[in-house]
Amino acid sequence: MLDDLPQRPLRVLLAKLGMDTHTVGVTIIAHALREAGMEVIFTGLKQTPEMVCAAAIQEDVDVVGISTLSAGHTRHLPKLARLLREAGAEDKLLLAGGVIPQEDQPMLLEAGVGKIFTMGADTRDIVTYLKAWWAERQAAEVP
Ligand code: B12
């Protein structure tokens, strides 16, 4: 039934926050999402939460994906979630991936991160998760 709905491609903003220069994971994710038909915008490195929030609104994306491997996740991700909320953009899915220890995850989910994929995550699972989220979101928007 959902297949009958007119669907626009999911728009995803990918970003790296702070001084984290690990680029392999985010590059793989960008390719996987593009191959799955999604529109992907990569902000590049050394972004602040403020820059990412502004870009997410300006680019009108549905999903904000942060790749974090240098231990900045407990500082940057809650701040980004708060900025998105304050900007009225809490409907965007905040997605995180990278080196995020299990013990930090409940706090991040509580702070507004929608879903976390860590080291070794299969890109097919990430694509499946996003497609399901998008189908659900579009179904909810149908009057
Ligand atoms: C390669 C590497 C480097 C390379 C990076 C090269 C590059 N251009 O990317 C170099 C040598 C430069 C480097 C430098 C450093 N590194 Co380094 N590095 C690694 C290493 C060995 C592999 C990372 C990698 O590429 N993995 C492969 C990719 C495919 O995996 P991934 O990024 O995790 O992505 C997957 C998932 O996490 C997820 N994902 C990732 N991002 C996203 C985003 C979204 C939206 C989603 C949905 C999913 C998702 O999907 C991907 C597919 O499965 C890791 C160890 C490890 N096992 O992770 C250490 C590691 C990340 N590095 C580490 C450290 C400490 C450093 C340095 C500080 C070392 C130093 N003293 O200089 C510097 C920091 C540089 C900086 N400013 O950020 C630590 C980080 C520790 C921490 N977080 O607490 C690690 C974990 C090593 C360790 N065990 O201590 N590093």
What's the helix and strand layout?
Layout: E1 11-15, H1 24-35, E2 39-42, H2 49-58, E3 63-68, H3 73-86, E4 93-98, H4 105-111, E5 115-118, H5 123-141
Parallel strand pairs: 1-2, 1-3, 3-4, 4-5
The structure holds cobalamin.
Cobalamin is lined by residues 14, 19-26, 28-29, 65, 67, 69-71, 95, 97-99, 117-121, 123, 126.
If you average the pLDDT, what whole number results? Answer: 94
Helix fraction?
40-55%
- Major sheet, described briefly? 5 strands, parallel
**CATH homologous superfamily grouping:** Cobalamin-binding domain
How much strand?
15-25%
The CATH topology is what? Answer: Rossmann fold
Structure write-up:
By secondary structure, the chain is an alpha/beta fold. Helices cover 43% and strands 17% of the residues. It contains five helices and five strands; from the N terminus they run βαβαβαβαβα. It has a five-stranded parallel β-sheet, with helices on both faces. The two termini are 15 Å apart. The model has no long low-confidence stretch (mean pLDDT 94). It binds cobalamin (B12). Cobalamin binds at residues 14, 19-26, 28-29, 65, 67, 69-71, 95, 97-99, 117-121, 123, 126.
List keywords for this structure.
alpha/beta; Rossmann fold; 5 helices
Provide a quick synopsis of the model.
With 143 residues, this protein is of the alpha/beta class.
